[in-house]
Amino acid sequence: MSERVVVTGMGAVTPLGLDFPSTWRQLVAGRTAAAPVTLFDVASCRCKQAATCALPDFADLPAKTLARLSRASRLALAAAREALADARLLDSRGKSSVPHLPLSVSTTGGGMALGEQFLSSMLAQHRGPGQFYRASRYQAQHQTHDLQRHLGFHGPVTIIANACASGANAIGHGADLIRSGACNCVLAGGYEALTELIYVGFDCLQAMSPDCCRPFDVARNGLMLGEAAAFAVLESESHAQARGAQILCELAGYGHATDLHHLTQPHPRGATAVTVMRRAIAQAGVNVTDIGYVNAHGTGTPLNDVSEGKAFATMFGDGSTIPPRLRISSTKAAIGHTLGAAGSVEALFAIAALQSGQLPPNLNVQQPEPMVAANLVVVGERRMDIPATLTVNLGFGGSNAALVFRRYEPHPRAATHAGAHKPQMSLAICGMGALLPSETSPRMKGLNESTGEQVVCCVDRTREPLATVQNEARVRRASPLTLYMLAAAQHALAAAPELARDRLGVVASFNTGAVVATRRFFEGVIKTGQRFASPNLFPETVFNSPTSHVAAVLGAAGPCYSLVGDDAAWVTAIRVAAAWLANGLVDHALVIGAVELDPIVIDAFARTGWLPPHGQTGYVPSEGAGALLLRRAELQDDLQIVQLADGFTYRNRNDAPGSARDCLAQFPADVVRCHTAQHNWFGRIEEQLPGGKRVTLPYHGDAFVASAAWNTVAAAELARREHRRILLPVWGLTGECSALLLAAE
Amino acid sequence: MAEITLDELKRLVVENCVLKIKPEEIGEATPLFGPGSVGLDSLDALQLTVAIEQQYGIVINDAKVAREAMQSLGTLRSWLAQQPGPRVKS
Lengths: 745, 90
What we know:
The complex is a heterodimer of chains A (745) and B (90). Chain A starts with a strand and ends with a strand. Chain A has a 10-stranded mixed β-sheet, sandwiched between helices. A 10-stranded mixed β-sheet of chain A has the order 17-16-18-19-13-20-24-23-21-22, sandwiched between helices. Chain A has a two-stranded antiparallel ribbon with strand order 2-3. Chain A has 2 domains: 413 residues, 3-Layer(aba) Sandwich (Peroxisomal Thiolase, Chain A, domain 1); 318 residues, 3-Layer(aba) Sandwich (Peroxisomal Thiolase, Chain A, domain 1), CATH 3.40.47.10. Chain A has 23 helices and 24 strands. Chain A is α/β, with parallel strands linked by helices and 745 residues long. In chain A, a hairpin with a 5-residue loop joins strand 23 and strand 24. Chain B has 90 residues and is mostly helical. Chain B has one domain: ACP-like (Non-ribosomal Peptide Synthetase Peptidyl Carrier Protein, Chain A, Orthogonal Bundle). Chain B is built from 4 helices and no strands. The interface between A and B is medium-sized, with 20 and 15 residues.
């Protein structure tokens, strides 16, 4: 039996307060933070309001350092620090007292405000300083690096970009890591900073209320966007007990699955919402009647709230009514829909409700939806004695997740499981697919004239299998990235056509995600104005859209994660699949790495200094996808991934060799190692690393996670052909060094 | 004031809704939404609303009006012809 997971610290920055206690006081008092947007111009938008945060200050940071932190990093840093302090894991210097601390984080926009500025300046043909900073630091892994750097810890990082459900996924995944035995303490949570791209996107979808967000009111007419950051410290029960931690509650259950109904609309009866609630309640081992409070997703959009109400009636009632003892509220009228942070901040509300018996009210209701009329929490409701609470998040792309929190009661056997307990991890590779760029090397221009023309490797979309793949109705509007993923995934699945699709999960890893749609959408906003932003393009800019499309076309109804990071996100994706398989959540997991090229990417490359001077050979930006179909290894499996490991997160190129050595030292010395970085700046480091025999893999240009995926396919084929162990390093170029060991014996 | 032609609307729909068919394959009475239709969905409806405002300066604010006007290209063309205000392609 796996260990119980407990919560030992919480921290949040929300539009209602700069820390969790002040947020909670304002929330239960029935305050709302709705206010006119002043962060950027919204003059041409249909809607004008949102819930924004006061920016936390950091007295201990030099002004220059503070100025270089993105808005997203500032929100995340304050919330994470509060969570560590609450868990008594912060030392007198404000640093984590646990040096090795895995991080499970969610966001949808990362530091997108910097990306918006970079695109605007490239289109305006600016050449000035500051462009490198914007080009390099908008990606989500830079905010997690900021957390590690300023809070003084290291360890594996998982960044989940599952749109509106990601915050619950980040916390649930933190628990999965502990349950699978990978670690015994995790910092888990989400952050979101409001940006123009996302605001205009929701505005053009007409998903926001022009006047007032009214969740579960019959007259509701849309959501209100917000921003926030919220983190929790999760520990195994024995780890928390051994250090004498205050235990706030037990994170007893986590359920997640994918609603394949539509990219932006929920299943009319909330079928997948019921599935994830059932899974979370079953894992928690509680009775349905033990759940006394539900923090609903409750966005205030016409479709979400009615489908969610039906799901609650199915889960907690007779299908058409809900017992009045179950109290329900959406807290989005108070703090807005905080997207990547929503699931995390709402999880903290569910924990506080469990601890205090106070319930956060559902504001702005005059005439409630009949289905939930008897259940909505009102301001000043009496305290309740509740054994367990539940949160549910129903996201864009059909990402649905639920968490169950239970009052903590000491477990008599817990102390016997002291210490970390890494399981022997072996994954069988039962299918592989690679979608490579074509052999010819065309040139691509940047948007900025000073970028010039660069040699790139591009996928030929007129050739098979892409010519057929793009005829799928579901991917009509989808990004090229989606098509690459689908082609690679279908190839990997061809090896096992009979497998149960309802027990198939998908983990995708990205760097820039659907950058073509994102650039086209925001370029349209810049050129034609916010009023004419494209409703057809915006959903395709969201990180998890490609993954949801792939799941829908393949009929994969298990969980889906979209991970973000540098090249090493590919290894993180394999690790997620390993945790799902170890916990019995799925029978098979499809792991995909995919990248697409766009002119703005060429501008960004040119400013990072990675591209060779014109006419010279060297680093070649590339695109494509690779996929592996994995399951738990059994004796007869000939091809396996037998070990994964990471080095410490490096901060600059001087640190990188140490991180690479740290990573390789964890593997046997006598294996054949692949040489993968000969065309980028890591190549010189790689040449000087110790080790025996090396092998060079075919080069198809540099496409980060997609290259890591092709290389894994090539290394696995080599291992199978030559019946030996092959070590494949995945050198992340922005901070992560990882490697995996393949065996065919 | 220039009249909006059917061919123009066919191109508008194919380009804005990223359809894999040729503009001439859409008939004047072919339903745009639902079974046996061109296969548009609610996102396309919003996209067409934006495109019509951008191209012709005609604003569609009411979802019910949009649904009725966008049954087919024929109904859309007649509805547009009845609207006051600018028509000139921007």
